[in-house]
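Box 3.1 A note on notation
Throughout this textbook, protein chains are presented in two layers. The first layer is the amino acid sequence; the second is a token string describing backbone geometry. Keep the layers aligned when reading.
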Amino acid sequence: MDKLDEIVISEVTAHVLQPGRLYQLLEAYLKFAGQRADRDREHISRMRQDHKEAEAGIARLLALVEKGLMDADDPAMRERLVGLWNPTCRSFFCSRMAHPTGFEPVTSAFGAI
């Protein structure tokens, strides 16, 4: 068994732990992380804008109710509220469902070891 361990360790050292290979892995990871950070910033910006638009729409609906121009029990009111709520929440929940942990798999970024 010791002989097998030595063979495995020597092959791992020879092929994976070489400075050039480690540099390539680190470079690929940093590139991937930078791209991911850019995507996350854009996604957060879109979600904030959607949230602001939904809040503004809800405020307009509440103003109509407060002025007596729309009844709070009106089915149209419910439909409008659901319509305002769904796009913002859907984008958040869909992003969480795609990667529930918040982390995308990174193995494809590095190729085979």
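The mean pLDDT is 79. The first helix runs from residue 2 to 15.
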